[in-house]
Backbone:
């Protein structure tokens, strides 16, 4: 088992969780990732960009010379830290706080990004929420709607809002999950949204082929993000990811390079695909 596999027992009572409250805090790809200009002159929108995978993706994009607009729910401290790291690369950063389940907010994000940064080349749909329930009967209508509104409706609304501003060569990347392929008995509604995201990716890729806009997804395995202590009890958090073939959860900065690949011209012949970054598990 890897030395960093175990985490101290911890829990957060709010979703999607705060990076500042985690022990240990996730590593920041700003410290290690070296860009090579793969996204020079491009503008990206990244949801959930204040922490977790979205934060690492936003910083990696900035280090690849893209300007970045990012969306967050209400974690102002995490958002300020992300914006600081983006601007320290010499790129522009714009944060938008709000609810992606609101189509009006999604239109505001797309329109103001285009207005302030001049274009939209890349959209990364990462923001998600999950709520543990041991039995299907315990998933309330409110929880079911909330999970789908964030994970699926928000993805639809923001993609719809961004597409009029996106042209040939643009890329859309969605963060799916290993749960879309293997399931999870205590995250049935969340896993269902991730399956919907995979189908969305494949269907939209076919629709946008003539417009020369590529659509792909990344399906991570266990990743050490604020969503984990915000979802599970302290004991489960302390063992999170230890059943992975590598014996640990990934850091978000180990996932971000897959997004750089799918957003850049390196993947110009790749669309409708799901890249599995999960530490060695195999699923169809």
Residues:
């Amino acid at each position: 088992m890897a030395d960093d596999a175990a985490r101290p027992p911890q829990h957060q009572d709010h979703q999607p969780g705060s990076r500042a409250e985690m022990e240990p805090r996730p590593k920041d790809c700003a410290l290690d990732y070296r860009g090579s200009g793969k996204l020079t002159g491009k503008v990206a929108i990244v949801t959930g960009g204040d922490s977790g995978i979205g934060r690492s993706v936003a910083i990696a994009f900035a280090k690849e010379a893209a300007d970045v607009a990012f969306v967050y729910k209400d974690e102002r401290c995490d958002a300020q830290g992300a914006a600081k790291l983006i601007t320290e690369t010499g790129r522009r950063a714009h944060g938008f706080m709000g609810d992606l389940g609101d189509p009006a907010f999604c239109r505001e994000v797309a329109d103001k990004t285009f207005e302030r940064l001049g274009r939209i080349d890349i959209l990364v749909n990462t923001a998600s929420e999950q709520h543990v329930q041991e039995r299907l009967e315990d998933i309330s209508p409110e929880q079911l709607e909330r999970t789908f509104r964030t994970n699926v409706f928000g993805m639809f609304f923001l993609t719809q809002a961004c597409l009029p501003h996106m042209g040939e060569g643009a890329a859309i990347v969605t963060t799916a999950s290993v749960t879309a392929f293997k399931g999870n008995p205590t995250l049935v509604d969340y896993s269902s949204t991730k399956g919907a995201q995979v189908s969305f990716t494949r269907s939209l890729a076919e629709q946008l082929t003539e417009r020369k806009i590529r659509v792909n997804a990344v399906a991570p395995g266990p990743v050490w993000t604020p969503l984990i202590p915000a979802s599970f009890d302290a004991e489960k958090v302390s063992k999170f990811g230890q059943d992975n073939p590598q014996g640990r959860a990934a850091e978000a900065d180990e996932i971000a390079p897959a997004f750089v690949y799918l957003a850049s011209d390196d993947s110009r012949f790749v669309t409708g695909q799901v890249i599995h970054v999960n530490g060695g598990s195999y699923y169809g």
User: Anything to note?
Assistant: The CA atoms of residues 3 and 248 lie 9 Å apart. The longest strand covers residues 214-220. Strands lie at 43-47, 67-72, 93-97, 122-125, 171-175, 214-220, 274-277.
